Amino acid sequence: MRVKICGLTRAEDAQLAQDLGAAMLGFIFYHGSKRFITPDAAAVIVPKMTAMTVGVFVNQSDDVAAIAAKTGLSGVQLHGDETPQMVEKIRKIFPGLVIRALRPEKPADLDAIKDYQGLADMILIDAAAPGQYGGTGHTGDWGLAVQAKDYGIPVILAGGLNPQNISDAAKAVQPYALDLSSGVEASPGIKDPEKLKALFCALQGVPA
Questions:
Q1: Would you say 176 and 4 are in contact if contact means Cβ atoms under 8 Å apart?
Q2: Position 115 confidence tier, pLDDT thresholds 50, 70, 90
Q3: Do the Cβ atoms of 205 and 25 come closer than 8 Å?
Q4: Per-residue pLDDT at 131
Q5: What is the mean pLDDT of the chain?
Q6: CA 178, CA 69: separation in Å to the nearest integer?
Q7: Which residues are designated catalytic?
C-alpha cells in the first residue's frame, strides 16, 4: 500500500519517511496551515528526496508554477476551492502529477469528481470539517472514499489516519494511497519517529 506522509517541515523527517517506505512526501505551502513550510526551506529538502514530492496549495493557483520550479516538486495537491478551470490552467503550466482534494459530506458531493475527470490524476478524499481545509485529525467517512473509486480516478484516502487504524482503513477502502499527517506527529509539522515506524510496521503486519 502506497503511503503519503504530509505536512513535512524538517529534512530528517522527510528522510525517515522515505527510508521507511513512503511513496510520496507532502509539503504545505498554505500560510494558514500549522504545517506551513517556506519555498526556500522546501527547496533545500526536496531535491535530496527520491520519493515523489508533492506541494500542497490552497487557493494559490498563481503561486503553483513558481514554487514548483523553485523547489523541484514532482506533484501538486490542490486542497482549496479550486474550480475545474483553475485545475486546467495549472495543468498547462505544471507538467507533473496533479491531485485534487475534496471533502465530501454525503454521497451527492462525490459528483464533483466528474468535473475533474481528465484534469486531475488523482482525487484525495479528506474528512469534512466546516471552515477548515484539512489537517484536522478528524477521521473521514470511509464509505464515501469507497464510492469515490467508482468515478475512475485513483483515490487517496486522508483524514484522521494513524498507526492504530491504518490497517483497517487500507482493508476497508483499498485506495490507491493513504495520506497521513497529524497521526504521525509529535507536534504540528514535527513527525514522531516512533509513530512513523509503527505506521509502516502496521501496514506490513509486523510488530513495531
A1: no
A2: very high
A3: no
A4: 57
A5: 94
A6: 26
A7: 6, 126
All three cell numbers of 123, joined, read: 482525487
Amino acid making up residue 185? E
Mean pLDDT, residues 64-79: 96
Query: What sign has the CA pseudo-torsion 56, 58, 61, 62?
Result: negative
At CB < 8 A and 24+ separation, what contacts does 116-122 make? 116/84, 116/87, 116/153, 117/151, 117/152, 117/153, 119/84, 119/87, 119/88, 119/91, 120/78, 120/87, 120/153, 121/97, 121/153, 121/154, 122/97, 122/98, 122/153, 122/154, 122/155, 122/156, 122/176, 122/177
Q: Class of 2-204 per CATH?
A: alpha beta
Q: What is the pLDDT of residue 137?
A: 61
Q: Which amino acid is at 190?
A: I
C-alpha cell at 192: 514522531
Q: How far apart are CA 92 and CA 74, in angstroms?
A: 15
Sequence ranges of the domains in the chain: 2-204
- What's the average model confidence in pLDDT over 122-130? 86
pTM value? 0.94
Buried b (16+ CB within 10 A) or exposed e, 11-38: eebbbbbbebbbbbbbbbbbeebebbbe
Contact assessment for residue 122 and residue 116, using Cβ atoms and an 8 Å cutoff:
no
